[in-house]
Amino acid sequence: MSACIGSRHRAPRTRRCAPSRPGWxxxxxxxxxxxxxxVTIVEFFDPACETCRAFYPIVKSLMAKYPDDVRLVIRxxxxxxxxxxxxxxxxxxxxxGKFLPVLEAVLQAQPTWADHGRPNPDLTFEIAKAAGLDIExxxxxxxxxxxxxxxxxxxxxxxxxxxxxxxxxxxxxxxLPSFGPDQLAALVxxxxxxxxx
Length: 197
Prior knowledge:
Layout: E1 2-4, E2 13-15, E3 19-21, E4 24-25, E5 30-31, E6 39-45, H1 50-65, E7 70-76, H2 83-95, H3 99-108, H4 110-113, H5 123-130, H6 135-142, H7 145-161, E8 168-171, E9 174-175, H8 181-196
Parallel strand pairs: 6-7
Antiparallel strand pairs: 1-2, 3-4, 5-7, 6-8, 8-9
């Protein structure tokens, strides 16, 4: 059992996580294994956000530093124009077991499609295709009502949790004392140490 931040709750709630393949699980949120990790980083993430892109390797290094103790839950915060489409694409990628390679490809190419003055999220389809995604199947999945339901739920949770910018992190339900990579690393280290007592 691991703690996630979920709907209509300011405090973390418990959610069962069932890994479908190494590294990423098939629970309703986008999360990484290990299943029994005592520390959960919840990141509210916008695929068009430059700071989210900059933090991706930082979060990844924390996951590598604590491979058995920390897992990551990604929540969507589609604040930028066109981000909702990219969120649906990522969810379609998840259904094909391609979430991580598509996420990384989309972030790497972010400067080409996420210009805030003239965003062009349609470019992410080609990017995702190059990362191995079946685009026709993805388009069908993106059109399913469940996708819009998921987006609406994420937006509702953003409001409930008063998340107004990305990335926003919670570590075992605790917010950062101030924003920055050192503060994130310190809070993760504190929670890992607490779990090992």
